[in-house]
Amino acid sequence: MSSPTRAGLFQTHSLIENHTILIRDEIYGEERVHEPVLLELLQSPEVQRLQGICQHGVTGFLGVTPRVTRLEHSVGAFLLVRRVGGTIDEQVAALLHDISHTTLSHVIDFALSKPGEESYHEVHKKRYLETTRLPDIVARHGITPKVFKEEMFPLVERPAPSLCADRLDYALRDTVSFGKLTMEDARRVVDSLKAYPSATAPLRQLVLDDPQVALLLARAYIAADKGVWSSPAHIDMYERTGRVIGELVEAGSVDEAMLWQVSDAQFWTLLRQAANPEQLRAIDRLEDEGLPDDNGLRLPRGAKIRTLDPEVWQGAGKQLMPLSVVLPMWGHEIQQYIFSRRQHRE
Q1: How large is the average pLDDT for residues 71-76?
Q2: Per-residue confidence (pLDDT) for residue 308, from 0 to 100
């Protein structure tokens, strides 16, 4: 067995005799992967590139938030779909759902996205895929090209505030790493996870079978949103970093293609090399000052306010219902949270 390589904060990968990859994840446990298409994808440079990209962009890169990576998140989403018995196509879709993410993750939305557009990596996904071997790999293994459209796979992607593998994995990694959820409770969430009515039904979805566990997760999710994801101070760092990147790309000082070719650390070096004196001072401030005091900062008008309302299914003969119906007080908490965040908008 090869020495474990660290995929991110909570996860390592080891190659066993070239025919199996052993994934050790602190939240999900151990998983042995042997399917040829998954082995090839996991070892491809396109997937391995995600190891150098922080889930939280500039705050992750500068150590303001823990260094959860896009690779461990992508593999984590795949592990969740695999755990509930998803098809090989749906497992591949989960593994590749973030494949077009750029360096520094959603910071690039603040740099280059047009008003009203989807995330930058989604808008340019097709263009990026055309530069990779990924379509050839999946075709050679008989996997449908639909795997590059993760929204077609309901275990992988569903609209908020429902559960899906993407949302659940980043929720677990972030809430644990931010100290909003204990590792023990995160594992309870995973143990409560089911595919309803089955992992292959046309209208399949991820659900939890314990409303109290669902409530723990949902409250931790809102705490992470308030403290980090929609924190005006964190968004301020994204905006200031995005401003520098946008100026440098627009001026031609940094090639846009580098967004998909280098790690966060390498890209940061490129920014410093290309920056003019004013831009360099802005970069120095980000490095030296870290997270600003959020006193006086307001939530930008377009900022997302994230909540979670997982579907709960308590077994045969029981009706599938959102947590806010099973526990009506949770619906009130959601509404109160949304109202309070809107009061902080610019």
Answers
A1: 98
A2: 98
